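Suppose a colleague, Dr. K., hands you the sequence of a protein chain of 235 amino acids and asks what its three-dimensional shape might be. Before reaching for any lab equipment, you can write down a predicted structure in token form. Begin with the sequence itself:
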Amino acid sequence: MDKEKILPVHIAIIMDGNGRWAKQRSLPKIAGHREGAKSVDDITEAAREMGIKVLTLYSFSTENWKRPKDEVTALFKLLEEYLDKKEEKLNRNDIRLSAVGKLDDLPLSTQDKLKRVMQSTGRNKGMVLNLALNYGSRAEMLEAVKKISIRVQEGSLKIEDIDDKLFSENLYTRDLPDPDLLIRTSGEYRVSNFLLWQISYAELYITEKLWPDFKKDDLKKAVSEFQKRERRFGG
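The predicted structure, expressed as tokens, is then:
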């Protein structure tokens, strides 16, 4: 079989294990997050080289606000540093930055940098790097239900016209294909409120490696495993 034909179009990753990576080395948590940012750069580059069209990274969930305030502040500063440092590289590699989630609740400085880099990279067509920020799938689906309900209430939409396609068009990911492959690092067997609608038929790949240790060869291994599977989509 021609492997090009079964290359995943969209890979989504739950980046887990930064804190444990740091704890194993008696380092502060932020050191784990900084090392994790290096993996983001490494995996983004690898995905682009492999011909992946969309890479979605679970960067900050709606539940992550429960973490200590200092850690949350440090995470957003780290994101802003990443955006500043990598903007030129994203453009050089023809990568468009996208973001999904309740972005209006992010720190204003983070919002500003996100908007700037998304605008700067907006015409790039090589790959989409999609960051899930302040993202929760249940909240996303509830928002979609409310949008659709308003249209029904206003009379611009009939109940019988509501289908999978319409629902998908009201999600944050409306402009993106559903993930073909979901990767989770750190060996945890759960999806953590991430893209629950979109991953209905995604292949799952769980690795024991912590996110800071997940590199190019690990992504290639995950894709190779994906290519061996027979996808039935419920059939």
